Fold this sequence. Notes:
By secondary structure, this protein is of the alpha/beta class. The chain has one domain (8-235): P-loop containing nucleotide triphosphate hydrolases (Rossmann fold). 35% of the residues lie in helices and 15% in strands. The strands form two sheets. A seven-stranded mixed beta sheet has the order 1-3-6-2-7-8-9, with helices on both faces. The chain has a two-stranded antiparallel ribbon with strand order 4-5. The model has no long low-confidence stretch (mean pLDDT 93).
Amino acid sequence: MRSPQADVYHSASSWRQPCPPAASAERSTLVERTAERILALDHGRLLVGIDGFTAAGKTSFGHELAEWISAAGRPVLRATLDDFKKPWKDRHLYDRESGEGYYRNAYDYEAVKSLLLDPCRSPEATSCVLCSIDPLTQRDHSSEVTPLGADAVLIVDGVFAFRPEINTYWDFRIWLQVDPELSVRRGAERDQDWAGSDAESIHRNRYLVAEHIYLREADPLPMMDLVIDNAEFTRPQLVTP
């Protein structure tokens, strides 16, 4: 008997992207098999991290995965690390605009832990926060809580998800692989609306530089449970079984 569809709880952030329509049977099959692997881990609460270069397709994959898991009857919480950055009003206190500064200073890992990951890890917790600071409006959502069931699956996407500060929280780690130049091209196209003519420079000289520091220092790839080549959205390929 098929389980009833469970709820998917989303962040209040205005940066939220919609769940993409099914792109191909091949992609749907890969997402479904990934969901099955995650659900086979435990009947209790699970924390899933999705990482990869900027514009690798992390948020879309997280939404697709959430739909499959909720269809299996497990409630899902969706969050993105971009909703846990330090507020722009404090940027005069630190460098956030160079690649080095972005990697070291942009994200508020204490907020990620206290508001989201620690509650999800605690069996006694009954709620958590899916958004701290809206990256676009800068509105503070840290007092807005989301119910947290005993069998909930938290899916978090974002760059640097497997830094030492938060790496130990995850039950399942996914890396979406794309070529660095494709990351820059996709990201620049996506961010034209707010970055304008600076979009490519931001992606190449800030985000890509930060990613290379991350790869060098944290070396996340050997930790992955699953690596997926996401260069072609309709034809994702498993790199690791």
